[in-house]
Amino acid sequence: MADEVLKFPDGSAMGRSPAVANGRPVSEPKQLRILELRYGIIRAQALTPRESTAFIEQLLGET
């Protein structure tokens, strides 16, 4: 299970993560903020789509 945060049109939000509240849904602002920060860190470390494609092509060429 991955981190998830759902934001609704009325401004409310709900999230869950295996690392926060044992994967149970949370709606407390502090816990939602933790999920958003974790997602931001992961996103900052991720390859761009172009870099991902090049990396996959490199791996396929090695097999």
SSE blueprint:
Elements: E1 4-7, E2 13-16, H1 29-45, H2 49-62
Brief digest:
This protein is α+β, with helices and mostly antiparallel strands and 63 residues long. The protein has 2 helices and 2 strands, in the order E-E-H-H.
Which key features would you list for this structure?
single chain; alpha+beta; 2 strands
* Tally of DSSP β-strands: 2
Q: What count of structural domains?
A: 1
Count helical runs: 2
Low-confidence stretches: none
Characterization of this structure:
The protein is α+β, with helices and mostly antiparallel strands. It has one domain (4-62). The protein is 49% helix and 13% strand. It has helices spanning 29-45, 49-62; strands at 4-7, 13-16. A two-stranded antiparallel ribbon has the order 1-2. The model has no long low-confidence stretch (mean pLDDT 89).
